[in-house]
Amino acid sequence: MAKIALFGATGTIGSRVLREALDRGHQVTAVVRDPAKVTEQHPNLTVTTGDVLDPASVTEAARGRDVVVSAVGGGDGPGHLATIEPAAKSLVEGLRALGDEAPRLVAVGGAGSLRTPDGKQVWDAEGLPEFLLQIMHAHGDALDFYRTVSDVRWTNISPAGLIEPGERTGTYRTALDDLVVDADGKSRISAEDYAVALIDEIETPKHVGERFTVGD
Question: Which residue ranges does the record assign to the NAD(P)-binding domain (predicted)?
Answer without folding.
Answer: 8-201
